[in-house]
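User:
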Amino acid sequence: MAGFRSLARQVRDPRCDLALRRYSLRKCLERFAPYGHRATWDHLCSRAGFGPEDRSPDPVRLVAALDELEEARAVWLAYEVEFAERRKKEKHDGLRRPGSVDDWHRLTWGGFGVAWCDDPAVHPREPLAEVLRRLIAALEREPGSACPVCGGERLAWKYGLDHEPSAGPVCSDCGILVPRPVLTPGALADARRARLLVSA
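Assistant: Predicted structure:
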């Protein structure tokens, strides 16, 4: 099974058939897809300027999509290194029980679904790397009451998400499943009430 870097090389290789280059970009999303596979693909296609079903996209656009994905992956991998170093130090200092950020992080190891978007057509418009920087910054500060990605305050609790956890606060503005550790208990309660109001 090819890794992310060898797949990225195929996307960039002009000697490869265009269909293989497109396929290799899709396969990269099996290794790293911050919004989930379908939503990340939709995001990359719209930002690079080709259709999700386009079987013969401009190779320059394919590489532009890959560039954005690689930049975001570098941001996330740097965070994972810092996270692992912090946990190692905490364990050394006797803190064995992980916190809520650690519980959330365990579900997103490798970067899949970090900013899960259950609806593939609803996701942040900003570059992936910027979205991840905002999310990481929120994980490293005190919890707040708004979406860490877009600042939206319209959070609603949704059940039956195609992700783990299968329920949680979803931003009505940018579509991400907001990590619970970045929200105050009051914001989480408000999101649950918003769910109740929507279903009533």
